[in-house]
Amino acid sequence: MKLAAFVVLLLLQPYSAESQGATTCSGLRLNFPAPSTGECLTAWDDQKGEVKEYPGDFDGFKNEAKIYRCPARNKRVIISNGIPDHQVTLQNKKGPCVINWVVEIPLNPTIATSRTEVPIRGMLAMALNGIPAYGPQESDSNNAVEGDDGVQGARFWYGHAGPNSAWHIHNPQMGEETVTATTLLGYAMDGFPIYGPLDDNSVSNLDPCNGIENSDGSYQYHVRAIDQVDDDLGYCNGSSPETNWNYILGCYSGTTAGSEVFDSTAYNLDTTDCVEEGTPTASPTQSPISQGTRPNIIIMQPDDLQFFDEWTRPPNNPTTSNKTINFPVAGLPNIDSLRLNGLQMKEAYTASPVCGTSRYSTLTGKYPSRSGMVRQHAQENSNGDPALVTIPTTKLVDLDGINDCTKENIAVQFTNNGYRTGMIGKWHLSKIKDDEYTYAAAVGRVKQCGFSTVEGLYIENLASEGGFNNYSDGTFSHNMEWITYEAVQFINSQDEKPFFLYFNPTVPHSSNDVGDALTKFTCQDTANGKLGFDPVIKGMTEQYDNCADYRESIYNRADTEDDYGPIWLDDSVGAIITALEDKGVLDNTIFLFQFDHGMETKSALYENGLRIPQFIHYPAKYSSGSTFDKPVSTIDIGATMLDFAGITPNYELDGVSWKDVSDDEDLETWWENSRCLFFELEQDRAVRCGCYKYLSIFEQ
Length: 700
Description:
About 20% of the residues lie in helices and about 20% in strands. Helix 3 runs parallel beside helix 12 and helix 7 (about 480-490) packs parallel to helix 10.
């Protein structure tokens, strides 16, 4: 009951400064109230100005602080009794009391889309010794760090008890006597680590929050030395969340929405998840994810989605160079969050501009002309003409020593190296005769190619009315709720292995009209028969009374019929992100979102058929707003994802890993000026080397 009551208290006053007698600069700030108080060091009362040595003068009170990593919940937990562990000089008439601190912050924090203000006098961080760090003002608005009006200056030991008897510090060294730029001091309430100050030549590299991005994509704060802050400026920088007295933090770069303070007397640590960590002493040079933790991987490819102008100017046809394709009025917040909070490939290509051939290159890391079926066709027609690269000739089959199904694809590689693997949505990569089709048989065929889980399967394109077949018989259509539900179920598996999910919506492919799919079919109409229930999906359908009401909301958010598919897809992305967040694995999941081909000249090797959007959300490696303006291809995905997982494939790939290219100047130069990409469809071929492209259009 104590714990529940305390949490309610926290939620009732999340954005309040009145209790501290101060107003916010930006109008938005999160304060964290202290938990309950235990015994107090009353022998120090009325001894203002005296110096107390630890532990001799502490009358048996000893500092207790432990830090735990809880990876399943994506939490770092700091448990402390609030007693300082160093020399102090009493600056008021009160000694410290035991404070029953439990602070939960993100274990793998991410950069938020906007910065937020830190508390003026409330807790903004926890030092490694379990003492909270406060903002730089005292109750009379004086500068607590630089010693206005007799306030003790920011010596390493400075701290005092507040009105609630909670001992806290304001100084930038956070309780340490000697600090350098590599000294870990503690953790901000948004989860990012805080280190000692940079030298005067490097401090300009800090952003207004005092943060800096490392070469590996990780992010950390550095406190500022006293002479690196201009205390002649007012505390507030107008109405900005970025305050001027940025000794410890100038603002939060991450979010504190998931951070909480609990009372240790009513808190139960989950020892099945949480492991006590040693106190690091040096600035990290690697990803905040443990090197022993392999990332989860999601590759998502919607079918025939348009290239929106908001993502960079699309490669339009010369005859329609001024054509614009804009987001729905409601926006695409979830898809765009992958782009804005991760890595955007500015020059991404498909190796072959139709859905089946493109998917072949993504899953195998090979050019489609290397498939066993293409090679067989070329040998049977050895007249010197280019081999025929088509959807029917690029299926994953084992043929003439080329084992595309059982060996030479990344699903097999992941499965054989300890990953659980899932395929959900459109497949389009297996040969199955119409009269032999059953849903179960199709699932079995896909599983033969390396996937341990196959759900929500569309084995081929949907058939149009008048062309229905044994597979697509007109009883179902596009169904984003069905496949998203299955994707969330896969993510939420109790199996603790890392996972690879290949997620391919049919939307908005024109084989079936999306508007008709939303109105003439239900969420329960699937390729595997009637579900018997409406899928309840957090972040998608959960907030509605039923699935029909959810689908009505898509209509309400759309401005034109062209908006239905993108909005439906965006909701699905949001549901997957929510599932990853709830499981605590978002930061250790590579979420790669891409198209299978361009749409302006689909099936042609012009730029507007080959160029695709490609976004990679992976906070452990790529910070918000990262871009790579060099040519990459769908053939590179296999090599890169296996590289991230530490897997050496047992077959030859055509693609090249771009995992570390941004960290290697020579490699980046080669990638820009010397790397050649090849493109193929039917018997047409093209190559791009550097800034030059050559096209060969086959004429019989």
